[in-house]
Amino acid sequence: MSAPNPTIGVTSGEPAGIGPELCARLAARHARAPFAARLVLIGDRDLLAERSRRIGGVPRYADYDPLSYAPAGGVVEVWHQPLAAPAVPGHPDPTNAASVVAMLARASDACATGTFGALVTAPVQKSAIQDAGIAFTGHTEFFAERCGVPRVVMMLVGGAREQPLRVALVTTHLALADVPAAVTGGAVRETIAIVARELERKFGIAAPRIAVCGLNPHAGEGGHLGREELERIAPAIAEARAEGVDVHGPLPADTVFVPRHAREYDVIVAMYHDQGLPVLKAASFGHGVNVTLGLPYPRTSVDHGTALDLAADAGRAASADAGSLIAAVDLAIGLSDASSAARRP
Fold first, then answer.
1. Based on the domain organization, do 131 and 258 belong to the same domain?
2. pLDDT of 84 over the 80 cut
3. What is the β-pairing status of strands 246-251 and 76-80?
4. Cys-Cys link to 229, which of 76, 196, 220, 236 (CB 3.0-4.6 A)?
């Protein structure tokens, strides 16, 4: 007997951003060519319907009921999470910040309890949440704290399907001045361990080949441009290698990301956000996928932000590219299937 299609939760993101329009495009795509999944949009019902009409679509939504499933084929369900104030495209309102955070918390809990097989997130406006007085660094950190996981890894996937480029990060949303202190031997060692385990279990890559960047230019140039490589990164790599991980480095970032070198590895571990992600986004912006490794459930996201300028312009919003969200859903379905297979005896 074949396994049933997984249920995939999709949070609609910042109400004033492009997320609700992209969710409407996702629903339209599902109506034309249904995904092999039950899709549940999580957000304000009226907002999602209005954004669907705004881009010239006819809403095909049904209210979400976790205890029953009987919508017609190609219909997307909506788990209503009401806003506190009307959303004005392009103008985030901190009044809605608590609603956005509650949406994320409920979606995460639904995944943690097995109600959803995976979670896909549209972008949020971190500044609007912080302006409301809520401590919020990003989705990655929020879900880790919600699940009580001490460390997760942010990885972006892009490029050709046959040979994707994967970039994982030791540190995520930190000011550059705070990065060197955060690149500890333990952080590098734990990141390598999570990446190796998750690529094998969820991506089906046996003995993944991992490259690790240095922190400094030229990977420290033997200590002349910094000692983090000698004192923290290289020892962590040596420990991982002693445990059987196929890991190499520390390597200069300006060398390892050269395409002919990058193709030698299944994933490249960068030390900080803007060391690795600009390369990936230059190669596949708008069609890349952000994956959180180390959570108790699969979570994927888009590779872009809230695009407030697009959201404010009805014409441009109507033509916004949902490629990254569609790719994130596709990958979430695959990861959900892999996680279910791993749990079966």
1. no
2. yes
3. unpaired
4. 220
HSE on the CB side for 43, CA within 13 Å?
A: 32
- H/E element holding 66? none
Query: Is-contact 7 116, C-beta < 8 A?
Result: yes
Distance CA 115, CA 79 (A): 13
Residues 224, 84 within the same domain: no
Q: What does residue 76 show for φ and ψ, rounded to 5 degrees?
A: -100, 135
Whether residue 126 sits in one domain with residue 163: no
121 and 8, same structural domain?
yes
Vertex 134: Cα angle to 132 and 135 (nearest 5): 140
Q: Which two tokens stand for residue 194?
A: 């999570």
pLDDT in tens, 9-63: 999 999 999 999 999 999 999 999 999 999 999 999 999 999 999 988 877 899 9
Q: Are 169 and 126 in a shared domain?
A: no
> Per-residue confidence at 314, pLDDT binned at 50, 70, 90?
confident
Tell me the pLDDT tens digit for each residue of 127-157.
Answer: 999 999 999 999 999 999 999 999 999 999 9
CA-based nearest residue to 231, from 273, 173, 188: 188
Residue 74 belongs to what domain range? Answer: 1-149+295-345
Q: How confident is the model at residue 340 (pLDDT cuts 50, 70, 90)?
A: low
- 276 and 191, same structural domain? yes
Q: Which of these, 215, 227, 277, 209, lies nearest to 251 by C-alpha position?
A: 215
* 38-43 vs 76-80, strand pairing mode: parallel
Residues in the chain: 345
Whole-angstrom Cα distance, residue 123 to residue 13?
5
Number of domains in the chain: 2
What's the whole-number mean pLDDT along residues 54-77? 84
